[in-house]
Amino acid sequence: MAKEIFSTQALIPIQEIRRGVVVLKDGSVRSILEVSAINLSLKSSEEQELILQGWRQLLNDLDFSFQVVTHSYRVDINPYLLFLQDRIGQEQNELLKTQGEDYYNFLNALVKENSIMKKNFYVVIPYNPVVISKKTLWINLQMAIKKLINLNRGSFSSVITLPPEKFEQYYQQLMIRQATIISSLTRLGLEARPLETKELIALFYNLYNPRSTHSRNLSLNNENE
What is the pTM of this model? Predict the structure, then answer.
């Protein structure tokens, strides 16, 4: 009997994205913050020590874990090069036109020899209300082993559906954690903002399709509520 072929989508742990919250297939939820960066090398030794102390204090004060993610990707600057060409062609001042052409040639040569990379920094805040007992842990371990042995669609596509009242409860708890993290990062001199539904969809699309897009902006008509 031929084995059932499962799709790669069944291996993605995301169930849905709703109200700026990522709902995973195991019933847990995640909030993702986009965070600015600090160049410590430009800070004085006293400022560096204060920042590191603040970071240690943040980690010690929290009663939950979070994840720091760095996303590096190649930036497509061809639209910018086309924009420069158009502006240079319209320029009447010969000096400015010459300077613009030099700048365009410099960028064009730079792109041919090097990849233009950009980094974004994210903090992933989880809320998983499941309390794992020894019995539950053993059951989950057995299920994981069965999934590895029986590689079929069903073993990877099991989903815990959150009813509206349960989602609202998890959402409120997640927002409390989110506010705590944002406040702590602000005290360190960092700007942090939660990604909205459309931004989350675009982010995960780019993450799961790195070759088909360098930094593709998705235009969505309706936000998933």
Answer: 0.70
